[in-house]
Input
Amino acid sequence: MIFTPQELSALGIKAGRHVRVSRGVQFFTRDVEIGDFSRIDHGTILTGRIRIGRYVHIAPYCVFYGKAGIEIGDYSGFGAFTAFHSESDDYSGRSMIGPCVPDEYRPYKTMGKITVGRNVLGGTRVTILPGVSLKDGVSIGAHSLVKSDLEPDTMYAGVPAKRIREKSKEVWHLTRNLELGIEP
Output
């Protein structure tokens, strides 16, 4: 079962045409925009400022901690249990931790907007840390930890994510054809 456009609107969610959002998605924010033809699967949690482009697929049980903002470009997708952290607590003991503690008691937490380009693919259980930019065409292997910016049209994997190799650029020809309504 999916939310109707009217139900999303009543929740304060800005949704484009033909958006499919499972009723099992939890919105702890009203600051969400979802582009045309995108889909968000069951169990996903969204908090903070979230912008999702067109033709984006978010698999089950992803979490978006978007206090500092998260933007996902068109044609991107992320596997189940992916976690986007636009803020992170300080683990050194210099700050208190957790979202229930007022910010003035968490002076060393890290915050930064996460920006995801177009045609970005993240495997299952990828973790993305604050301030990271995933350039157009990036692919990230399952169970990877992304701590820094990733270069365009490149494959990454590991903890932390490391460059594996360049990718084919054929996806950009296909993207152009889709946008122009031309057969692949």
